[in-house]
Design brief:
2 domains, Aminopeptidase, 16 strands, 432 residues
């Protein structure tokens, strides 16, 4: 049987009905960061149902990583399809005006097309359904490949970090599960992450550096005695203006592949709202710096330290302190690496158009995998087709086009056939 006819059999075996059911089932499972157990149980059951060898890691109590392995005949590479169990929004967030998304799944029509709506459909439960469908189709056709295909569902990917009083599992994100997996034996040759890239190949993304800058040394005193007393909150504009100037300089100096870094003043905390009759002894600003993969986190820290040191020298009354609290390095691979080429071929075959490449400034699970020597990329379908008139402020903000999810499964299947039919030396000569 020719390679083309084998691929045609696999593509014909992609089960659209099962894909839709999987996405609906997953969206209906409440899985915020820190509460991934139910989603993990579902993925474990589905991996076993399609016949994969299943194993489980407990990142911490109630927070699993789930893996399903289709072993090859030997001598080939390991290809991992990774996706996170937690979601950006669940539909229950009181802090989002009007709610972030509908909490449950529904299948509906809009613009004459069929879609699945619901929190987590976009980021990134639809990708798990595509992974399952791709591997199930390969297995249904009885194909034995040289390399191993691994599906993984990991906890704690969503961007969140413990800081100050914000402690606990809900705040332990930013790739907590992927980092645990990578340091506990999960080291694939290649990884494909089905994040919402709109059918673009995301070769790399910028790192993130979260820091707390505090104005300290104030006095807690009753309002009656504050006349003429320096106020830490009133001093904030001096720091904000310095950070705005830093932001402008930083963004101009961090161009990479047509993208530039960003600085976001993301939060302010200070004083005691419940005790309004007291002056604030301290106030803190929190910043998020997105930096290119050619920069190290230490280089970013040095730039922020320089801003703080300069302010302290010119305005010693500020008594500034700088404390980083979350760091994720940038990551990238080459467009010439085999996983990128395999996805390009699969994309062209299924969608009949060349594959576009991109970089992004948001986080994914790629960095801990690449740190171990893997070649990890992001490629997913969510966001490729959009519904006219819907914006990120609508409760239907998370949705996926059913046809796109099916096509994505087909691209994944072709990429897996391509990569895992080769020897490791053919596709990862850099390891030899």
């Amino acid at each position: 049987m020719t390679t083309d006819s084998l691929a045609a059999r696999v593509l014909a075996a992609i089960d659209e009905q099962r894909i839709v059911q999987d996405v609906v089932d997953m969206v209906n499972i409440h899985s915020p960061t820190g509460s991934e157990a139910a989603m993990g149980d579902y993925m474990e059951a589905r991996y076993a149902e399609i016949g994969l060898q299943v194993f489980r890691q407990e990142v911490e109590p109630g927070r699993p990583n789930i893996f399903g392995l289709l072993r090859g005949t030997g001598g080939g590479p390991v290809l991992q399809f990774d996706g996170h169990l937690d979601v950006s929004f669940t539909g229950r967030e009181a802090f989002m005006r009007g709610g972030a998304s509908i909490a449950g799944a529904r299948v509906g029509e809009a613009d004459g097309e069929k879609w699945i709506f619901g929190a987590g459909a976009y980021n990134m439960k639809a990708a798990h359904a595509s992974y399952l469908a791709a591997v199930a189709a390969i297995m249904k056709c009885g194909i034995r490949l040289r390399g191993d295909i691994m599906l993984s569902a990991t906890s704690g990917e969503i961007e969140a970090s413990q800081v100050d009083e914000f402690q606990g599992a809900y705040y332990r994100g930013n790739g907590a599960g992927a980092a645990h997996a990578a340091s506990h034996g999960i080291v694939p040759d290649f990884a494909i992450l089905g994040e919402p890239t709109e059918f673009k190949l995301m070769l790399g993304h910028f790192g993130s550096f979260w820091s707390k800058i505090s104005l300290t040394g104030g006095t807690v005193i009753h309002t009656a005695h504050t006349r003429g007393l320096p106020n830490k909150i009133e001093q904030l504009p001096l720091v904000i203006e310095a950070l705005k100037a830093f932001k402008a300089r930083f963004e101009q100096s961090t161009e990479h592949k047509g993208y530039r870094g960003l600085v976001n003043i993301s939060a302010v905390q200070g004083g005691r709202p419940w005790k309004g009759s007291r002056s604030p002894d301290a106030v803190s600003l929190y910043i998020d710096v997105r930096f290119p993969p050619t920069w190290s986190p230490l280089k970013v820290k040095a730039r922020i330290d320089a801003v703080v040191d300069d302010l302290n020298s010119r305005q010693p009354e500020l008594k500034l302190e700088h404390q980083p609290y979350c760091t994720n390095p940038g990551t990238e691979i080459s467009e010439q690496d085999y996983v990128a080429q395999a996805l390009s071929r699969g994309h062209q075959a299924v969608l009949n158009r060349p594959l576009e490449t991109s970089y992004e400034l948001w986080y994914s699970n790629a960095p801990p995998l690449n740190a171990m020597g893997a070649q990890a990329v992001n490629y997913g379908c969510a966001g490729a087709r959009k519904i006219k008139g819907l914006t990120l402020s609508d409760r239907d903000r998370e949705y996926v086009h059913i046809g796109d999810v099916v096509d994505c499964a087909k691209v994944y299947a072709l990429a897996a056939l391509d990569i895992c039919s080769k020897t490791r030396k053919e596709v990862r000569p850099d390891l030899f």
